[in-house]
Amino acid sequence: MSTRIAVTGATGHVGGMAAGILHTEGVPARLLVRDPSRAPSWAGDVAVAPYGDREACRAALEGIDVVLMVSAHESWDRLEQHLSFIEAAREAGVKHVVYTSFLSAAPDAVFTYARTHWATEQALAASGMGWTFLQDSFYADDFPEFAVDGVIAGPAGQGRVGAVARADVGRSAGAVLLDLAGAGSRPGSSHEGATYRLTGPASLSMAEIAQILTEHGSPTVYRAETIEEAYASRESYGAPNWEVDGWVSTYTSIASGALDVVTDDVRALIGRAPVSLADLLAARAQRD
To answer: 221 partner at 20 to 30 Å CA-CA among 13, 38, 45, 156?
Structure first.
């Protein structure tokens, strides 16, 4: 009997990339989505299963062996959504969960959102299901949006980050799923209990990121802030405290050195080097 696979977040960047890889390789998968109208035209098996709706998720996961669990969008109740989904998967008889986590996941991580990832990992490890963790660094794709009027301002100091292209995370997830389905480069590889740390090819400071953005047509400078200045400069957005903490700790986590990490895990999974920020920006310019 073939391995039955489901992909959450299948209309998003990471889940969509993984689902597309499975489709291209002829591996059927059930796509779990919130809005079925956004599912790709080729999708033949689509189920509505929003995180937090345990019954809908359990029903959507019936008969599934392996599920790619793309982490939910940041929210005040993201952990509760994750725990609900994990319980639904366990009840449905899922055997293995591939979870997109974060590189510095820990109970006391400087990056506040990474604490939820750690708690989710712990819940999966205790669930009785098999698991694989894809711990990605910050997405390189997001750095152009960090700049406001040509300035990236934050308390990152001289810290460095091995940011990864979002598509490389999707490709890595797709490669793991293909292996679990017996159709990848390592057919039958279980990836059981494996943690892959997904980074780009180099660790960059915020000043270097600003320089790369400038070289690719978006004049940008980095201005270091104190933590107090960072909170004050973000007050005008009127965002809830948990969200502002996440924004500021994006920079302080870089300053801490926790994300000054470069691994070869992307290459090991997808068979080629990860995309650099410069190459990512060049490809984006060609598309535009």
So the answer is: 13
